[in-house]
Amino acid sequence: MGSFIIQRFNFSSNFLFLFLIVSQSFVLQTIAIKNNNPTAYEVLKDFDFPIGLLPKGVTGYDFDSSSGKFSAFLNGSCSFSLERSYRLNYKNTIKGYLSKGKISSLEGVTVKLWFMWVNIVEVSRRGDDLEFSVGIAGAGFPVHNFEECPQCGCGVNCNANINHQQQVRKFGENPFVSSF
C-alpha cells in the first residue's frame, strides 16, 4: 500500500509539473503575440517618425505592410493649438501611405492658416526636421517638437495651459484689482 501512495504522489507531482510548464508556455506565447502587434505610435517610429504626429487616444489602426496604407482611429475629432500659432484638427480617421521618412496622400489632418483650413497632404522627414506640405506650400519644424503626443483640446503643454488659465481667472476674479 505504501508504494501505491508513492506512485500516486509521483503521478500528481508529474501532472502538476507538466501543467505548470504548459501554462507558462501559453502565457509566454500570449505575451509574444501581443508584442508582435505594435501600437500605431510604434508603427510611426518604425518609419522614422516621432510619435507626436498622432494625438493621444488612438483607439486602433490598420496597416498594410505590402502597400504602406495606414489608418489610425480616434474616438472623435480632435483639435488643439501648437506653438500658439497653428491650430490643428484631426478627423476621427486619419489615412495615408507610410514609407521610410514619408507619409503621402495624407487625409484627415487640417491646419488653420490665417482664416481658412487646409489639408496637410504629406509629411517628410529631412534629417532632424519634419516638412509638412499643404500642396503648394509647406513648413518645416524640428523633429524634437513632436516627441510627445499632443492631447485633444490643449496640445502638448496641457498642464502649463491649465495653470496659465487658472492664473488669468484668479487675476480677473480679484475684487481689489481695478482698471482706472
Automatic annotation (TrEMBL):
Keyword Signal: yes
A Pfam cross-reference name: DUF538
InterPro entries assigned: At5g01610-like (IPR036758), DUF538 (IPR007493)
Gene3D superfamilies: At5g01610-like
Name listed for the protein in its UniProt record: DUF538 domain-containing protein
Signal peptide: 1-32
Keywords, comma-separated and alphabetical: Signal
Entry superkingdom: Eukaryota
SUPFAM superfamilies: At5g01610-like
Keyword Signal tagged: yes
